[in-house]
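Posting here for the record, re: zinc ion.
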Amino acid sequence: MRVAIAELSHETNVFSSVPTDLAAFERSGIYRGTEVVEALRGTATTIAGFLDAAERQGFTVLPVFAVWATPSGMVTREAFEVLVGELVATLERMAPLDGVLLSLHGAMVAEHALDADGELLRRVRAVVGPDTPVVAVLDLHANISATMVEAADLLLGYDTYPHVDQRERGREAGELLVRLIQREIRPAKALVKPPMLPTSQNMTTDRDPMRALIARAHEFEALPGVLNVTVAGGFPPADVPEAGLSVLVTTDGDPGLAQALAEELARLAWERREGFLGGVSSWEEAAQAIREIRSGPLVLVDIADNPWTGGPGDSAELLRFLLTNGVREAALALIRDPEAVAACLAAGVGQRVELELGGKTDRLHGPPLPVRGYVRLLSDGRYRNRGPMHAGIVVDLGRTAVLVCDGVEVLVTERAESPIDLNVFRSHGIEPTERRVIALKGKGHFRAAFEPIAERVVLVEGPGITGSDLTRLPFRRIRRPIWPLDPLP
Ligand SMILES: [Zn+2]
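Prediction output follows.
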């Protein structure tokens, strides 16, 4: 069995002022051919799961590429056409193929293809033909479309947020693909999308309502004839008609059962919708929580400038808050500001600098913050995640300065990624368990590593495009009416 594998993944926040061009994908790193296997085997990723399945099931893997970019604005026409063009041309060259395994996000938006994952799958289908099975793994934040469902034989999404089951889902996809190749199963799919557009600060799968939805999905998956049940929470700032929560049920040749189960789960999601709201503290409440710290650390998270939801990562509001409140023994990851990094490099380790920090990408994330700081350390900004999420993956923040401002150690970086791993601090000489306050830009993924060390987690919301308040975003293309923006019966 010859099976092509590929990853092309982007979560697109169309409200970001930073377009996602080819250079953005190249900066995040493109692995091609055997590099895919060398770089990703054994990591906590979907591709590693495909490789596990190949070993267990005995199929031959033909790697196309693994490419992704940090969530940001609209994918340019050029980037989409070049990358999807390469994918399709490589699949054509690899023929004859017995199957295709894809790792996609499901919330990619391109300038000329709003349902970019659907368009990608359609083109893959066109090149491999109707008889070659195509199975794709999607993110839990996918905006699943009818086009995606139709173009693939089978789609399955992550069951966890933080996404710690990517490798497991990759394995499952590989096993299902083999059953498809051997004509053991005939997928019948039902996609149901209740009129819901939940944000993700309360979407983590260790708490309701998502915990209850995934638990029900697993009960359904145990029923005879059910191949997969996926609940995707969706990604509002993609601003596409498909944005929002999706339930996708795949059975073995029983469309009626698929439809009935998908409708039941969608009904449950609708009934529990209020549970997706809230969970964010005011800055006053955060200041009070800091006064009440016993041993720490208190993990303080600004959800409105989360790089992995498309935030530029350059809001200085967390630092402004910490300095205004005289908080010491604090560490902050991160503020993206290449100009400030250059100033720290020019000054050198052990020197003092005066800067206008952050707030430079656009006017949506607060103004720059004037600071005086001490340059404690300069690094290349590279470290390897210890996990659990993305264990083994190397992160590249670009050149990075540890700037100390009145007792707050700030990682000032050239690139923005969500700080989801303790090694973001440890690789910079900061032991997070020994700080009173750990300040992060994030939403849910930070919880996998930081919740176990936290005395308490407090979410706050500065200015920005990735927060919980959807009324801040100028939506143009989502379906209306939709909860929680519009009144619904
Ligand atoms: Zn996600």
